[in-house]
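Internal ticket #5521
Category: modeling
Description: The requester needs a full-assembly model to guide mutagenesis choices. All entity lines are attached below as received. Residue total reported by intake: 550.
Assigned to: D.W.
Attached entities:
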Amino acid sequence: MGPHTLSQVLRHIPVSNDPRLMVGLETSDDAAVYKLNDDQALIQTVDFFTPMVDDPYLYGQIAAANALSDIYAMGGRPLMALNIVCFPDCLPHTILEEILRGGAEKVQEAGGIIAGGHTVRDAEPKYGLTVTGLARPEQITANAGARAGDLLVLTKPLGTGIIITGIKAEMVSEAAVSVAAQSMSALNREASEAMLRHGAKACTDITGFGLLGHASEMAGASGVTLEIDYSSLPLLPETMNMARMGLIPGGAYDNREYLRGRVELDEGLKPEEQMLLFDPQTSGGLLVSIPAPGAEKIISELAGAGIHAAIIGRVLPREEKLIRVVPSGDKEEVGTKAKGEVGTQ
Amino acid sequence: MNHKTVDCRGLACPQPVLNTKKAMETEGIASIITIVDNDVARQNVILFAKNAGYEVTEEAKDDAFHLNISHPGEALPSKTDGGYKQETTRSAESGPVYFITTNALGQGSPDLGQVLIKSLFTTLAEMNPPPAALLFLNTGVFLTCAGSDVMNQLEKMHASGTSVLSCGTCLDYYKINDKLKIGSVSNMFEINNWLSGPHMVTTIA
């Protein structure tokens, strides 16, 4: 559901003011956090979606990585997960087995347990998980913790929505498809552990509302403005080629509409560059707000683990707009690897 | 010059972009009207057409958007090449296309084959106009990578506007992605664009 519709609907839900609910609806966070005692907070999240890739096993992995990511974004570790499945009668059940195997292996990789699930007959397959995690209450990295002076770290390249649209158009090279698949199915575990080691206080994961959608939630909850340096954004290979061709998912336009008037984009940005900022991500990276020394350590530690993270901007005291995107660098190299794109090797 | 209407009503993305692209690649088409019935398709087709070097005007009628897409200036069918403008000069644009699927010319002794392929490229480099594009496939991709005997000839043609494209799948297969020295990595879509375009194509196998 688009951010605009969602916020309309959620207005009517009563807000709880139970003090044990550390993070609830109001701050548009990734997961709810319930304080059990001074040492333990329970994190609860749910996420599921329709297939975005043809391979059922990969779809299962991506859906699970995406659901688990909400726990990582809050600074927790997953304990237990339940499958949520919608599946049509007309498809062979071996497909469902592959989806569930992909999900189960991903949860296992995360150190969690799949403890059951629920299935519904439906015309279109849908899969996801509800995940329960645990964190130390003082380590919760909610949207509201960003402070002026922090740097912003992004831990996965952008462009999955555009690449998935390009795949539907059969225009993405095999190599680029495989980089995107690898990125979407990768856990945000190392990224989360690295940010906790260096004392991050705010984090969100970049998913359906795009980079600017989720960044603006962080800016709003923290009472700050985020400045994003366009030229520093890491991109999946071939993303800009697809964007230039108008292979942009409808969700990106919804996200842009929702944020109209709340974000300020440099006038030099080309239309396709602007759309990249709103591109809905599937199982995207973590956006972490953290003081400079920690930011650099996260980058170097993740690089050691083979993860391409980048410093993409900084946190400013609150200005009129929630987000300011500053000028584009040169992303126009054609054919060769554009600046900022992650290699296909 | 011919005109074509592409009715994309009822179609979801990315189909309107693809149908418009197909119309652009049809020989002799000077202008296109793409009809779309949703705003996402409208914006994506406009973005695509402008980036491919076309001018777009639009009008809303009958609950749909009519996008008038035309090429400014002359009526040569445009090469879209994955949405970005080809870096070719006008002179190379009019030359032929070579589809090179081997790094040794002809059957028989591999040594002789290499001598012959070098001789071929030396000849190509003297052509006027230079080739519009050189498309390298299978072992042909070794010619665009480090250690190639024909690098000087390729550089000369590249400098005069020839597109030098190497098949990405082939570079992957031979594990020589990091050795590519000239031109850009391409895909079957773009290669097929050249093969099915208006240029004369010669296959070197």
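Resolution: model delivered.
Comment from assignee: The beta strands of chain B are 2-7, 29-36, 55-61, 64-70, 97-100, 133-136, 163-167, 184-186, 201-204.
Ticket closed.
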